[in-house]
Amino acid sequence: MVILGGPGNNMGTIFGAVFVYVIWVMSEPVALFILNAISYLGDMWFAWEAPSDFTSRALQARVFSIGLIITLVLRYAPKGLFPEKIQQHH
């Protein structure tokens, strides 16, 4: 959470905590919806039988999505989404 928001910044840490919580809560239902849609379309168009363990795969999507977000933030914003502002004293 601190990595996402930015170390040394209280607002960044709070944002990171809320952001991770929202992603953690929303990723399972979204992944389950996407997997069910793929299953439905695959069954309708290709007579493809989907695996039966969609619930456990949707839970794994939580960990994947958090890991992906952390990786992207570390790659493109290594100081966090709200980096610490260094004050210059004259």
Measured distance between first and last alpha carbons: 33 Å
DSSP summary: helix tally: 3
Could you give a short account of the major beta sheet? none
State the share of residues found in helices, binned by percent: over 70%
Low-confidence sequence ranges: none
Question: What is the H/E order?
Answer: HHH
Radius of gyration, taken over Cα atoms and rounded to an integer in Å: 19 Å
- Secondary-structure-derived class: mainly alpha
What percentage of the residues does DSSP assign to strands (E)?
Answer: under 5%
- Overall pLDDT score: 83
Shape call: elongated
Q: How many domain regions?
A: 1
Total strands: the figure is: 0
Descriptive overview:
Helix 2 crosses helix 3 (54-76). The mean pLDDT is 83. The chain is 71% helix and 0% strand. The protein is built from three helices and no strands. The two termini are 33 Å apart. The protein is mainly α. It has one domain. It has helices spanning 2-5, 10-46, 54-76.
